[in-house]
Amino acid sequence: MIPYDLVVRSRRTVTPEGERAAAVAVRGERIAAVAGYADRLPAAAEVDLGDTALLPGLVDTHVHVNEPGRTHWEGFASATRAAAAGGVTAVVDMPLNSLPPTVDTDALDAKLRAAEGRCHVDVGFWGGAVPGNVKDLAPLHERGVFGFKCFMSPSGVEEFPPLGDGELRRALEEVAALGATMIVHAEDPALLGEPGGPTYREFLESRPGAAERGAVERLVALADGTGARVHVLHVSSAACLGVLEEARARGVAVTAETCPHYLALAAEQVPEGRTAYKCCPPIRSAANRDLLWEGLARGVLSCVVSDHSPSTADLKVPDFAAAWGGVSSLQLGLPVVWTQARRRGFGLADVARWMSAHPAALAGIPGKGAISVGGDADLVAFDPDADHVVDATRLHHKNPVTPYDGHALKGAVLTTWLRGRPVDGEPRGRFLWRAR
């Protein structure tokens, strides 16, 4: 009897202990052993990557799939194909931009029906917290969602309104009682202005960093008062870092993430009329970007996730006041981050920690996030030295709209294995649920 189904060898295997030469042995759907690169490991199939890196499958906990209801923006089939092509083996779907939004168990059932049989990678779900649905949080939690998302400012879609401070406190009290996590779009609506014209400068001025900082300050105070675990989504302003660092030092249960576009792009480089760059909160200055990298290095920001928020091309009109706000980048996150990380002296182990281990830990996804014995055999062959230029029309995203179109990137995903099998076009993804 051959003891292993698959052995993948690489001189650059990224494990929780760092990068080393290793052989990863797979039995069934799980990693059965991590041995020396040259160790004899009899297997039914073997792949020797040589100097091509072997990473754990990435975990993207911030993806707007938009199905059901807005499948023409994106859907489970297209989003998960794009994820696999980008080395992402697990995504957690956001509760809004689909119709209905995932704010009760009936809506969750509608989402499951839409996703069934269409997923090329594993998929989990966040629930939504909106005015009047505190009673729905416990049933969603019991069903296995990974936590709850809310907005402190308008979401951009009428069916997912924000929570005021009183409503947010009540929701956080319920989240604390459940032992769950609230993930929060933190911008203070009182500090947000109306963009007065079509330019990027006017749009950026309408959403100042102070609006993020003020909302994070209020959120931290509410988390401290209720004992709830909170996570700040898509931090774009470095003005938030000191607030987060001080709160964590005091023992407040708060974590935070940022996104590839905040680490790679800068306001000074946004071309006028190119509203593929528009997102909320906005891409800020190059100096601010440098400070976000420092926040990652210090661990104030723990995760880098896509906030893939796609739309049809007609919604990205060349007017920053009127265009839909969202960056489409699910397939590109790994090379975008790696291109910038290597320039700044970071290694593949850092990228795997930010984009795999920490997002898996944030959501509490069992078996994901690391090349370690007993975990799911989610693996990625990644050539860190490959050069390529992004062609939006060749991406698996449903709509060819991304700010990275035409950008030169470093690094390419060659093969993605999901639970020990290459992702080959057959939708074998499964639903993921909170560990009980």
Distance between the termini: 35 Å
- Under the CATH scheme, which architecture would be assigned? Alpha-Beta Barrel
Q: What is the tally of helical segments?
A: 11
Whole-number average pLDDT? Answer: 97
pLDDT < 50 runs, ≥5 residues: none
CATH superfamily: Metal-dependent hydrolases
Rounded to an integer in angstroms, the radius of gyration calculated over CA atoms is 21 Å
What is the number of independent domains? 1
Measured as a percent range, the helix fraction is: 25-40%
Helix-strand category = alpha/beta
- Portion in strands: 15-25%
Report the strand count. 17
What is the approximate shape? globular
EC number: 3.5.2.5
GO molecular function: allantoinase activity; cobalt ion binding; zinc ion binding
Pfam families: Amidohydro_1 (PF01979)
Organism: Nonomuraea maritima
Q: Overview of this structure, please?
A:
The chain is α/β, with parallel strands linked by helices and 436 residues long. It has one domain: Metal-dependent hydrolases (TIM Barrel). The chain has helices at 76-85, 105-115, 134-143, 165-178, 200-206, 209-226, 241-249, 260-264, 286-298, 333-343, 348-363; strands at 4-15, 18-27, 30-36, 43-48, 53-56, 58-63, 88-93, 122-125, 127-128, 148-151, 181-185, 229-232, 254-258, 303-304, 379-389, 408-418, 421-422. Strands 1, 2, 3, 4, 5, 15, 16 and 17 form an eight-stranded mixed β-sheet that branches. Helix 3 (134-143) runs parallel beside helix 4 and helix 4 (165-178) packs across helix 6 (209-226). It starts with a strand and ends in a 14-residue tail after the last strand. The mean pLDDT is 97.
